[in-house]
Amino acid sequence: MAERRMFANSIIDSDAFLDMPQSSQLLYFHLSMRADDDGFVNKPKSITRSIGAGDDDIRMLIAKKFIIAFDSGVIAIKHWRIHNYIRKDTYSETNYKEEKSNLIFDENKAYTLKKPDEINAVNATSTSRDESVDAPSTNRDGSVDAGKYSLGKYSLDKNIYTAPVTEADRPKPETERKRKFGEYGHVLLTEKQYETLKSEYSNAEELISYLDEYIEMKGYKAKNHYLCIKKWVADAVSRGKGKAGRRKIGSQSPQSGGIDTETSSMISWDILMSATGDDGG
To answer: What residues are paired with 123 via a beta bridge?
Structure first.
């Protein structure tokens, strides 16, 4: 196996590649560097763990069609022959001939899965183009055409690995999706959180508006606006009720020359942000 590997700009500079998380891009480079002369890798999971990547990165590379995975645990770099040209006098054929027999090259020299009914009909060592197969192909700019036989349609075939769907992959119910509230749309709440605030606070809309305006003025960010309203905003608004009118946030009390109720609340907000690890940027 060669010690050096090449990467084609048409692939790694494509939007499809650059849109992936950096961890997925890094994993792709590591898998490619460890591939044999036919672009096959026999321990993708070990490589994934060794660089601190996760199963989501493997799933991303499969979904984006940068690698092809098999039930045996072996993966193939789809654009291997676009990246690398191996001289015949240094070439060593892969040990994974069964997996290789399930692949053909498209017109741009990218690996493509054969149709299921043709897997056993072609010589096991052949990777020549079968013109009768209307399979996914790779364009010159690195983009991928799904064709008639996309990964989704192949997924029932025993020779193709499909990553299991986790709870994180499942779409969230409508009640768990956050919506924007307030005049400026800064307050993010789920429908359930919004209904809970309305049931617990008669002035829920005022509390939401208060937080929305504060974020608009100060630019603060928080991971959980629902918690901010319950732990900080409700108290700040309640303490400000006794004052004549609503003074501008951060103003000083002309009578005392000190910090007024709302400024004190602003300091409480800073403490809350610090406790939750938010830098306020």
So the answer is: none
Query: 239-249 as b/e, with b when 16 or more CB fall inside 10 Å?
Result: ebeeeeeebeb
- Residue 68's H or E segment, with its range, is strand 67-69
Sign of CA pseudo-dihedral 64, 65, 67, 71:
positive
Three-state SS string across 95-145, please? Answer: CCHHHHCCEEECCCCCEEECCHHHCCCCCCCCCCCCCCCCCCEECCCCCEE
Is residue 240 a contact partner of residue 211, using CB atoms and an 8 Å limit? no
pLDDT tens digits along 84-129? 888 888 889 999 999 999 999 888 889 999 876 655 554 444 444 3
239, 240, 244, 245 alpha-carbon torsion, rounded to 10° = -160
> Tokens 């197969």 identify what position?
133
Share of the chain above pLDDT 90, in %: 42
Here the tokens at position 235 are 């108290």
Structure tokens at 3: 């010690």
